[in-house]
Amino acid sequence: MSARNIGVVYRKELTDSLRDRRTLVSMIAVPILLMPLLTIGLGVLSAALMGRAMQEIPTVMILGGEDSPRVVAALRLLGDIRVVPPQPDYAERISDKQVRAAVEIPRDFDAAVERGEPATVRIYMYTGELRSSFGVARLQRFFRELRERTVRERLEARRLPTTLIEPFEVREQNVAPPEKVSGTVLGGLIPYFAVVLCLIGAMYPAMDLTAGEKERGTMETILCSPVSRVHLVLGKFLMVLTASLLSAMLSVISMGATFEAGRGLLQNLEQFGGMNLPLQFNPGAMAAVFLMIVPLAVLFSAALLTIALFAKSYKEAQSYLSPMTILVVLPAVVSVLPGVELNAWLCLIPVLNVSLVSKEILAGIYQWSYIALIFASSCAYAAAALAVAIHLFQREEVLFRV
Amino acid sequence: MIEAEHLGKHFRASHRGTVQAVNGVSFCCRPGQVYGLLGANGAGKTTTLRMLATLLEPSAGSARVAGHDIRRDSPAVRSSIGFLSAATALYGRLTAREMTEYFGRLYGLDGETLRRRVDEVFQRLEIDFGDRRCDTLSTGMKQKVSIARTLVHDPPVMIFDEPTLGLDVMTARAVIAFIRECRAHGKTVLFSTHVMSEAEKLCDMIGIIHQGRLLAEGTLAELGARYGQSDLEEIFISAVES
């Protein structure tokens, strides 16, 4: 085994790849930009859209209520809804988004409340429509306050304390450390993205260094040099592995940076009562996740190189490798599903095992026996895939398939 | 020196069964000599040359190139040859110098020796565009870099597979001149072509190959006497039809 020859091939492939715009995009730009665009970009966009929707004063119809002037007058006085004249086709108008909601005041509502008799107010809405739900929320708040006020007045009239209807209070309190909460809430996403980007980063160089070389006619050029085919495939493999690991590493760093930047946004949301998550990520845990991904990157690199070698053109290689993305995304998605917990059998399933253990590591749980089993099985799969790649590189019917 | 003995090669094609591409080909090419393998497309020329360059393993027979057995000592064979064909392209994203240096390193050259050798070859081939990327070069420039790549390790044996295929007249002439120069330097030169005029101008020995078999070989005069023709095209047709 000549490390020198492997190094010569590797250095050339690295120089060649770093001058290729497509490789740079898949290896560097995508892992760095994907997470910020997906989280902060989408977050800012949805916040802007929500803000615009919240600024609108919803139009509301009051149906009935001719015999209940008190409640109708109170509704009309509300500043955050605009009351429009009632129409018989209110349901159609709500569905067509001309009116956001309608409230039906039952017959003798004011009097019934006065007498302490039951009464039902109906709110008509467009379920799932954001602006309609804002209108409904404002109506709900009005009637909740009216109900509370009525109860308070009745208790006071009878000289009874308010604790009569609220004998005790229940409060929730988080006791798990912020690191564990973060691991549970977001821990599934980080390995998912890192694993998928690890594959995507390796995909383009794997095609370029095999099928691309056949297509451009450089495969025969390199094969007539004295370098052995084992050294050649190892040099190429190391380049694909570099791209894969670089993608995974950049994606982990980018996710860490995005998370830090996103914490500020979450705190802003907390002020509005939208989120109350004590989030914190440990850089050490992120590094451990990256370490678990290393054998997976070896497996991806060798497998992609092997499959792409069969193709005689770049286009053919693309059609072979595209299904690989689904094969990787599926187990990665399964790991994000709630209730999927690591066990000895799942430790043997590639991709799923690394995704699950990474989720645990991010939550601060280190099950060393499982970690060892996953690392060993990943290394075994990676070694098998590399052996197949080396074997195929010796077969002339694969190299000279035209 | 190239000595081929009963070389044979068959391929398994999925829809055509077994295809015998080369069948019992034997010939000898000596130092300071240009041996031309003349044949139509699909005659078995490229397969024969690829076996001699150890790109393909023979199904039958054997050969020695510069004293090394192609089956047992393929790295030594590849170190002793410069192989140029229409299918040996350049790495477009490397410069002409990087391309030549890369191959020099693969042939075991390093440091100052490599730099000096590349300078020599570039000077000899009048390459003054060493810092330009190969994908920006003209066809003629690319062919010069390909030749530089085959010469960087100063091999005793040169194998050319249809080296003028697809080239313009000026570039093709330069390649022919380069082959003559190799002969003048005492190298063993084997080249394949289907262009009769090239073979007539260049070859000391001609082998006519058809459907994987070597039908006849000799100097132009010997072949002319054997088939009663003076024109190589007529000799070729007579050999194939007989």
| Quaternary organisation of the protein chains | heterodimer
Secondary-structure-derived class of chain B: alpha/beta
Order of helices and strands of chain B: EEEHEEHEHHHEHEHEEHH
Alpha-carbon Rg of chain B, integer: 18 Å
**Largest sheet of chain B at a glance?**
6 strands, mixed
Biggest sheet overview of chain A: 4 strands, mixed
Give me the secondary-structure category of chain A. Answer: mainly alpha
How many strands appear in the DSSP assignment of chain A?
4
**Widest sheet of chain B: strand order?**
6-7-8-3-9-10
How many helices of chain A? The count is: 16
Question: What form of chain B results from the Cα inertia axes?
Answer: globular
Shape of chain A: elongated
Distance between the termini of chain B: 30 Å
Integer average pLDDT of chain A: 87
- How many DSSP helices of chain B? 9
Query: What's the gyration radius of chain A in Å?
Result: 31 Å
Proportion of beta-strand residues of chain B: 25-35%
Percent strand of chain A equals: under 5%
Spatial strand sequence of the major β-sheet of chain A: 2-1-3-4
Structure description:
The complex is a heterodimer of chains A (402) and B (242). Chain A is elongated and about 100 Å long. Chain A has helices at 3-18, 21-55, 69-77, 90-95, 109-115, 130-157, 178-186, 189-208, 211-216, 219-223, 229-271, 283-310, 314-336, 352-362, 368-393, 396-399; strands spanning 59-64, 82-84, 101-105, 122-124. Chain A is mostly helical and 402 residues long. In chain A, 69% of the residues lie in helices and 4% in strands. In chain A, α3 (69-77) links the parallel β1 and β2 (82-84). Chain A starts with a helix and ends with a helix. A 4-stranded mixed sheet of chain A has the order 2-1-3-4. In chain A, α2 (21-55) runs parallel beside α11 and α8 packs antiparallel against α11 (229-271). Chain B is α/β, with parallel strands linked by helices. In chain B, 39% of the residues lie in helices and 27% in strands. In chain B, the strands form 2 sheets. A 6-stranded mixed sheet of chain B has the order 6-7-8-3-9-10, with helices on both faces. The two termini of chain B are 30 Å apart. The chains are: A mainly alpha (402), B alpha/beta (242). Chain A binds chain B through residues 5, 8-9, 12, 15-16, 19-20, 216-218, 220-221, 223-228, 396-397, 400, and chain B through 11-12, 50, 53, 55-57, 75-76, 78-79, 81, 83, 85, 87-94, 98, 102-103, 105-108, 149.
